Amino acid sequence: MESGKKPQLVHLVIALESVVLLAFLVMLTPWGSRLTLSGNAVGAETGRSTGENAGGSGAGQGAGGGADAAGGSGSTGGQSGGAPEKDYIKWVDFGVTEAAMKKAFRYDIDTCLAEIHLNWIEILAYLGAKYGGDFSRYRDSDADTLAERLKAGEKIGEITADMKYYAYYLEAYTAVLGGMVGQFEVEIPGSQAPAFALPKDEAGIPIPTEEPVWVTKYGLKAFSPIAKNYPYTDYDDFGASRDYGYRRTHLGHDLMGQVGTPVIAVESGYVEAIGWNQYGGWRLGIRSFDGKRYYYYAHLRKNYPYHKSLKEGSVVQAGDVIGYLGRTGYSTKENTNNIDEAHLHFGLQLIFDESQKDSGNEIWIDCYELVKFLSSNRAETVKDQETKEYYRAYQMKDPAIPGEIPEQRIPAEQRIPVDPS
């Protein structure tokens, strides 16, 4: 080799080593961490040739976490042709525990009539920013301290001013929980009604009654996906391996129960998808009215999967019976039982932009802790002895529903509460 070329070669080697070192250092930064996590999530599964499957869908995101990953909102990179990329959240890890949700919810409920009303999602977003999304670090005292500061007159914006990712967690957690707490009207058993809600005689004296009575409440208006009095078992199976059709991860939450168990609408919304899917069998997809949440209910009962009133576009209220637990799926042939153990696959997809809905960039979250939280509110059902269809036992009026409020009701003489035992 000519001596004059040696310095050039040395310079080239040094330059290449510098590039490699720089790339390594970048991957240690918050941006590099986000890119690595996003790449792994998208690579977990490829394609969406058949729509939602028993694991949720194509390339869903859901593993990893921490404050650094919060940078997933608001990418400013360019698309082909130089058009700026849309600014919306592209990745969420919902790790909020049942204990944290219960604590924040209780503060919200207890202060709903107070001069300073505490918002449970703001409390959780503060905790998310404090813990970097890692709720294994959760302590009741952290929520208590925040609540006392807010009650003393401090503003959440002032408290979180130096929290870089608070806005991200607020938007992300609002997308998950935004439709679950609020004011609504509901029927309750007359025996449980307060005196002011009971019918009155001519003298204004409350008249005891066994008939349902309407009351206005502020509280949890979302429901467990399994009807009251029906047993089920579950564990945190989000991210588990699935291999029917192609190797993928499980992007939902399975609740094992008895075939025919009434399945309940968690939140009010409209039926966006109904019918057969080879992975999920008979399945329903219900979209929240704000468009942020897509609830996926799969493996419904053979021969009788859905409530007869439902079709694409139907409006449902939280607490309505929407279908029946079964074990259909894993077949291209409709109405086939190929699932070994009867269960409901329950999935929740977050949608910040419509381009995420049916793509390789879907966001499915771990629902295990959320389902535990919702188990405190399970809808009671009744059976129509003539048609064998199940209905909700007590009606509800959810103000989130635009237009006329639908009722899922059967004649009074057929209102026989179901005792599955």
Secondary-structure content class? alpha+beta
CATH architecture of the domain at 232-402: Distorted Sandwich
Distance between the termini: 89 Å
Please work out how many helical segments DSSP would assign: 8
CATH class of the domain at 232-402: Mainly Beta
The chain-level mean pLDDT equals 83
Helix content: 10-25%
CATH superfamily of the domain at 232-402: Glucose Permease (Domain IIA)
* CATH fold category name of the domain at 232-402: Glucose Permease (Domain IIA)
Rg (C-alpha, Å): 25 Å
SSE series: HHHHHHHEEEEEEEEEEEEEEHEEEE
Give a quick summary of the entry.
The protein is an alpha+beta fold. 23% of the residues lie in helices and 19% in strands. The strands form five sheets. Strands 3, 6, 8, 9, 10, 11, 13 and 14 form an eight-stranded antiparallel sheet that branches.
